[in-house]
Amino acid sequence: KQEVTQIPAALSVPEGENLVLNCSFTDSAIYNLQWFRQDPGKGLTSLLLIQSSQREQTSGRLNASLDKSSGRSTLYIAASQPGDSATYLCAVPYGGATNKLIFGTGTLLAVQP
Amino acid sequence: NAGVTQTPKFRVLKTGQSMTLLCAQDMNHEYMYWYRQDPGMGLRLIHYSVGEGTTAKGEVPDGYNVSRLKKQNFLLGLESAAPSQTSVYFCASTPGFGNTIYFGEGSWLTVV
User: Fold this and answer.
1) B97/A97 CB distance under 8 A
2) Could you tell me which chain B residue has the CA closest to the CA of A43?
3) What is the pLDDT of residues A29-63, one digit of tens each?
4) How is residue A82 annotated by DSSP?
5) Do B100 and A103 touch (CB under 8 A)?
6) Which residues contact B39 (CB under 8 A, 6 or more apart)?
7) How far does Cα B23 stand from its chain's mean position?
8) Which of A43, A98, A106 sits opposite B104 (nearest CB)?
9) pLDDT digits (tens, 9 = 90+) for B15-72
10) Are the beta carbons of B56 and A98 separated by less than 8 Å?
């Protein structure tokens, strides 16, 4: 059964620092991987979707990479800001074409001003 | 553009009561999902639908029922609420396989 793990569980950094969030998955036969952001008391907002044929996706200060062979994805946040403080979740689909998602445990990020 | 809308946002139920959570999406998406999020357990799939008139069980379907009579709506029902169903419920939708999945803002349910 696919398992998705995120390390670290929590991270606190000063404003302006570049940082990397990690996501690991046990079954490398994935079609894509999605990164989400969740603010306290809110729903999940999709940040980036990386297809299995891609190695990287970029959106503004965010860059996500995917290495299927090693079962890893990283989310790089450049020049972090207090507004980046949130929980970041990665998720991979399972169950064929139904697009059901299995989620990682999340990384709680705090960017200190 | 409303996206995925969930109602109600907050609800307190007594054990044994029934209720329905409504999810509506205005993006003409085929697939819809109901997840619950609990501390230490993460997000878990309750039920899902891959098209109007279809529903299927997810990881934790016991105690819940769903219906997808209209493409834009996905209803989650609790027939006899239990304290173990205290949770935050999220609805999500997507055009189909391999696409970005969009989530609603969540519904906070407390069963006392």
Assistant:
1) yes
2) B105
3) 899 999 999 999 899 999 999 999 998 999 999 99
4) G
5) no
6) none
7) 7
8) A43
9) 999 999 999 999 999 999 999 999 888 899 999 999 999 999 999 999 999 999 999 9
10) yes
